[in-house]
Specification:
The protein is mostly helical and 334 residues long. It has helices spanning 3-39, 46-71, 79-94, 101-124, 130-149, 162-166, 174-192, 194-204, 206-211, 216-242, 250-264, 275-295, 298-327, and strands spanning 168-169, 172-173. Helix 1 packs parallel to helix 12, helix 4 (101-124) runs antiparallel to helix 10 (216-242) and helix 12 runs antiparallel to helix 13. The longest helix has 37 residues, at 3-39.
């Protein structure tokens, strides 16, 4: 059998799996909405739907940065710690005073850039695996937060930051509008810019990309810094929403940002994914999180559901990738 025949024979086999993987988040959204209707009819109240939209905005902002890092071939486990650190900086530097907020915002941004740069340096210069490097950063920053707060909710957030978390625009929560702007900007960067093309290439085949003259270290390092900066933005949203410092926050946000991207279809292996997939994953995860709250499952139930979602998405990606590799043995893959 010729190479052309082999490629023609296997292509119909790949297309349904590819389409199924892309449609999986939409199917999941439908299942959750139906299950919520049956088990928790109050899910469709205005208050609950507003909470879903807040979660979409809050988780989505962090997931955009996580998407960039995943496409680069890495992973960032320090996102939750940066969000928590942002609220600590704002609370300690302002002590609730609005006139001190600009200075606190600058410090929070610089702290985020520093964490992102440290992650990038550990991964690129010291060759520490991304999982280990960013988890070490998470532990370090989270330790600082726990030491400062004593492990209990504390501090005071300026009232001027409140509208960022609790405000409404055209009837919708401000965070979801902010997420919409950022996800569109992220999609344009990935699809229409040189940086986006280089990011995909660096994640798919870093050695070949470097040999072609691309400074892959700068590209990947920029993804880690962008992820940390977006985590700062998410931290400001959450600080404005709850109005104090929550030392427990970082325990859930790492999983949430990763799950939202991976469940949407962004590859854990790097080089594949787009913001549309992240958007779908964010909506599905937000629905799941709020549904779990309504069911009264507690933090344990939430962790279990999010973990199961990541596992199922990873298995589905692995199966599709394996089939593509196998079908490509006889000829050119697509």
């Amino acid at each position: 059998m010729s190479t052309t025949d082999e490629s023609t024979r296997t292509e119909p086999q790949r297309r349904p799996l590819r389409a199924g993987l892309n449609l999986a988040p939409a199917f999941g959204i439908g299942v959750v909405l139906l299950a919520a209707l049956i088990t928790t009819p109050g899910f469709y109240s205005g208050t609950t739907l507003a909470l879903v939209l807040f979660q979409v905005g809050f988780i989505g902002i962090a997931a955009i940065g996580q998407t960039l890092v995943l496409i680069s071939g890495g992973i960032d486990l320090s996102v939750g710690a940066v969000i928590g650190l942002t609220s600590v900086i704002v609370a300690t530097q302002t002590e609730g005073a609005n006139d001190r907020l600009p200075w606190a915002l600058l410090l929070a941004l610089l702290a985020g850039v520093a964490v992102g740069a440290a992650n990038g340096a550990l991964v690129l210069v010291r060759r520490v695996p991304p999982f280990v490097a960013t988890f070490a950063t998470f532990v370090l920053v989270q330790g600082v937060i726990m030491w400062w707060t004593g492990g209990a909710p504390s501090g005071s957030i300026p009232g001027a930051l409140g509208p960022l978390g609790t405000g409404r625009l055209l009837g919708l929560p401000v965070p979801v509008w902010l997420f919409a702007v950022l996800v569109v900007a992220g999609a344009i960067v990935l699809a229409r810019t040189t940086f986006g093309r280089r990011l995909y290439a660096s994640g798919a085949n870093p050695r070949a990309t470097a040999m072609s003259g691309v400074r892959t270290g700068l590209v990947v390092g920029s993804a880690y810094v962008a992820c940390a900066v977006l985590a700062v933005v998410a931290g400001l949203v959450y600080a404005g929403y709850i109005g104090y410092v929550d030392a427990e926050l970082a325990r859930t946000l790492n999983l949430d940002s990763i799950a939202a991207a991976v469940v949407g279809g962004v590859a854990l292996t790097g080089g594949r994914g787009h913001m549309g997939q992240t958007l779908a994953g964010v909506v599905l995860l937000s629905l799941l999180v709020v549904w779990m709250v309504q069911l009264g499952t507690g933090p344990g139930g939430r962790f279990a559901v999010v973990g199961a979602a990541i596992l199922l998405a990873a298995l589905a990606q692995q199966h599709t990738f394996s089939l593509r590799s196998l079908s490509g043995k006889g000829g050119r893959t697509r």
